[in-house]
Amino acid sequence: MKNVKVLGPGCANCKATHKLVEEVARAKGVEIALEKVEDIAQIMTYGILSTPGVVIDGQVVHAGGIPDRKKVEGWFA
Asked: 5: pLDDT confidence band, cut at 50, 70 and 90?
C-alpha cells in the first residue's frame, strides 16, 4: 500500500488533485492510504512553495497545479 498525501490549503486545485489521485488509484486497482494535509506548517516541512503538492511514501512527486492524469497514472504503474 502506498501512503499518499495531497498538500494544500483546501483550494479548488487541491481538491481536484485529491479527487484525481483517488480516481486513478481506484481505476488501476492500487490500494492507497490517501491523506489531505492542509496545515501550512506541515506543508512547509516538505519544502514545496506552491500547492497542490503530492507526496508518495515520503517523497515529493509533484508541486504546483493539478498534475496531468498521465503523470498520476505513472505514479501507480
From this structure: very high
Reported as type and span, the H/E element at residue 12 is helix 12-28
pTM of this prediction exceeds 0.85 = yes
Round to whole Å and give the CA distance between 1 and 56: 10
Cα–Cα distance measured from residue 49 to residue 16, given in angstroms and rounded to the nearest whole number:
19
What's the pLDDT tens digit per position in 34-70? 999 999 999 999 999 899 999 999 999 999 999 999 9
Could you tell me the domains of the chain? 2-75 (3.40.30.10)
Angle, vertex CA 54, rays to CA 48 and CA 55, nearest 5: 90
Cell of 11: 483550494
